[in-house]
Design goal:
- The chain contains 8 helices and 12 strands.
- With about 270 residues, it is an alpha+beta fold.
- It folds into 2 domains: about 110 residues, 3-Layer(aba) Sandwich (Aminopeptidase); about 140 residues, Gcn5-related N-acetyltransferase (GNAT) (Aminopeptidase).
- Strands 1, 2, 3, 4, 5, 6, 7, 8, 9, 10, 11 and 12 form a 12-stranded mixed β-sheet that branches.
- The relative contact order is 0.19.
Length: about 270
């Protein structure tokens, strides 16, 4: 690992392992070495440090407490893991406790100043900022089409976070037509509280509009906004499709992340 990657990973661990801002109805608390969020779309558990400091039976008891806590609430939750985390046995312990692993993603970090290149919107597409609930519903419908599953929950989530906040940016990319434009992609940026980091999210694009530079343009738009708001580092949990694009833009892979999902058993 180069000195640059080591420094970026250390910055990631210091700034990007928290819970962020609580949404409406969400509660944040702790349990031993864990940070925990509940009451939102889905519960969430993470560690503020790369080493839980537990293994064996102690680790199993910590896992069991989380399942009991969320099970009593009837709430599914995600346990966010990183590839460099300790103990290394955590993933296998989670699987043994009934969790399901989602697809791993690559964590990439880049400097906003290097990503904020002048970029024209792709031909036939307009990119603009939005806080409109109607636009959030259109974005959710687009995500539902892209992924083939119900993403309607996203509309309320984006609306709540974008309303009255200077730390959250939503961009919509839509066809350049005078009436009834179609949402073809969308992306958002979340500032990490009390840090100079921002997280890049979204970027899913309708199949017919891929390969036209929309994703690249959305990254550049968000990077320019980040610089204007004092954000110097941008981080992405990237899919295999997005990782090569982001690396070409100058972002650096520093680790991987794999969500482990636990769902309460049905009666």
């Amino acid at each position: 690992m180069t000195e640059q990657i080591t420094a970026l990973l250390a910055a990631y661990d210091a700034n990007m392992r928290g819970l962020g801002r609580a949404g409406d109805g969400e509660t944040h608390d702790t349990d031993g070495p864990l940070l925990r969020s509940h009451g939102g779309f889905r519960g969430f558990v993470t560690s503020p440090t790369a080493d839980l400091g537990l293994d064996g039976a102690e680790l199993d008891r910590l896992i069991a407490r989380q399942c009991a806590f969320f099970g009593a609430r009837g709430e599914a939750f995600e346990w966010k893991t990183r590839g460099h985390d300790l103990p290394a046995e955590l993933p296998e312990r989670l699987l043994a406790a009934g969790f399901t692993a989602e697809e791993p993603e690559t964590v990439l970090i880049g400097l906003a100043a290097e990503l904020a290149t002048p970029t024209r919107s792709p031909e036939g597409v307009v990119i603009r900022r939005t806080t409109s609930p109607a636009d959030m519903r259109r974005i959710a419908a687009m995500e539902t089409e892209v992924w083939g599953e119900d993403w309607s929950w996203l509309a309320e989530d984006l609306t709540t976070r974008a309303t009255g906040s200077d730390d959250f940016l939503v961009l919509v990319a839509e066809t350049d037509v005078p009436t009834d434009p179609e949402v073809v992609s969308a992306a958002w940026l979340t500032r990490t509280p009390d840090s100079t980091f921002g997280g890049l999210w979204g970027g899913s694009t309708l199949a017919a509009w891929r390969g036209r530079g929309i994703y690249r343009a959305l990254v550049a738009h968000r990077a320019r906004w980040a610089l204007d708001h004092g954000i110097t580092h941008l981080q992405v949990d990237a899919s295999p499709d997005s990782t090569p694009i982001l690396r070409r833009l100058g972002m650096h892979p520093v680790t991987t992340t794999t969500p482990y999902i636990w769902t309460p058993p049905t009666a």
